[in-house]
Amino acid sequence: MVSERDSDDGSSRRRLLASLGAGAVSTTLAGCADVLPDGVAGGDETGAVKGDMATGPTNWPAIETGEILSDFETLEEWTARTGELSAAPDEARLGSQAAVVESDAGTAGMELRFPDGLDLEGWDVSMAVKPASADRIIVEFLAPTRRERLSSIRVVPDGYDGWFRMDCGYQQKPGAEPALSNVTGINIIADGSEGGPSKLLVDDLRRTESASNGAVVLAFHGGHDSHYEIAAELLAERDWNAAVPVTPEKIGDSGRMGLDELRELSDRGWDVCSLPAVSTPLPDQPADRQRSVLETARDELASDGFEDGARHLFVPDGRMDATTYDVARDVHESTFLYSAGTTSVPPTEMHMIPFIWGPALHTGVRRHLNISDQYDLLTVLRIPRIVDAEDVGVNENRMSLDDFGLLLDHIEHRDLDVVTPSDLVDGTLDLDGDEPPVGTRPSGTVLEAGQSHTFEGTGSGESPTFDLDDGVVVATVSHDGEEIAVDVTKPSGLGRNENLLTTSGNATGESIMAVDDDTYRLEVDADGAWSIDLFQPAVHADDLENLPIEASGTGSAFVGPLWTDRDVRVVATHDGDGTFIVDGSGADGSREVLVHRTGEFSNSRSYKAGGPVWLNVEADGDWTLEIVDS
């Protein structure tokens, strides 16, 4: 049930409007009737559903900003895909009725079609949902067909059956490149238990203007020493702030930051957020006990000087039911819940903001960040304790320093804004929305010739230190064993390694990497004799190949230099059983990991290129690349 606080025009609505910020569309419900005039059958000239829009008070999670796509006052424009579709007058969030789709089977779905197309370029979509019997809610945007669709998937917490607002941040782009300027349909699907039933209530489907740039929240769970000693230093170099969800009674414990360290970070602009300790999951406790747990943790943090951060809750154990949700909305100004997917910047739903597992860099995190970049969305990442790669172990609650460095590089290369929970709530987002200019093809010399070095050895070991100049370095490796892996590190840095080349079953291999003017060392792991030649070639404008480009090979090699105006799309295949890695390196020193998988692979990836670039391939089998303009 929604409390009286949720159904009036009072403080909860003012908080929501403030959280959306000045840049959000401020069209009122009455105004929506004006911007949705009579047009083609089933929609206006924008493709939105026409007709008399609902007016009057709204019940959360219906909102009053943006433009209504469907208020469900009539269900004539909707069609049941699976199951049955009907009105739910007693559940109305907006107007006189909501809609309910239900089935005795494992899925129930409904669809809305836009014959003349709906323009969602520069818009975010959200809706009020009540998962009466659903494990997942899936929203598909056909742009313009199902082959070019974008999917939003929200995992419903176990036992949650109340209303909340679902921001339809995209999570999957399974086919060809979608065209959001021509969305011909929206599918809403309730995915229940395997044997059924499935049931979902929906209301107030609308679009609000999207942000001018994508964003990231980095949440350093637990406040470990490595978050202060490693992460804070690396973020300070980039002038970034973050969130530190902590349990008040664990502050200063062995291996964790104390009050002095947390206060220093808070003074820099970090949010020290609430992560209450619970011996019993919150949904298994009565409402008054849940409230006491949340209020106690919040107040302890506030008394320690962390008033701003204490407003934000990270739900322990990933458990939330409708009671927890209502209590959290009373006690906190934002709530983060382990789930999946991207969301709007800022979210219209501030109390079920999804965050994902940061160490899954190569199995989802980069994809979420790329989608946030392309569609101006928000990704929230949970970062555990940061350790050396050899200390991560299997299924450990840790992240390697190497992967953490790659994560920061990827965020920086994608030009995503790193923000805090307080930025979302207070509307202090300063997003850099400038569109990158189309590159001008260079003339003459792109890179001057640089340094050259040769190293030889047997088995595993380290090379002497050596210097490189800004640009790229090409490595030619030969060995007489079965496997060799060559990493590059900066001895003066934090001990972070980057893989230069890994080859198995091939006597030779080539690799290329973007580098800067610094001192380096090679770390070699091999089972035989080896030699490594490093050189920094001169690159001239006449060397740059134009897209599209098709390339193929076996083992380790690279493609380029290529000329790219802006972003490109890379279609890659691999038929080997081992690791398959595709990196992009730019003449400006940039680097982006495009593919990092094991075994066979056949898929496409976006690459934020622009300028002269190379694609580096590490493989143990045959591979192909097709590189085209995005």
UniProtKB/TrEMBL annotation:
PROSITE patterns: PROKAR_LIPOPROTEIN, TAT. InterPro entries: Glyco_hydro/deAcase_b/a-brl, TAT_signal. SUPFAM superfamilies: Glycoside hydrolase/deacetylase (SSF88713). GO terms for biological process: carbohydrate metabolic process. Coiled coil: none annotated. This is Polysaccharide deacetylase. The lineage of its organism: Archaea, Methanobacteriati, Methanobacteriota, Stenosarchaea group, Halobacteria.
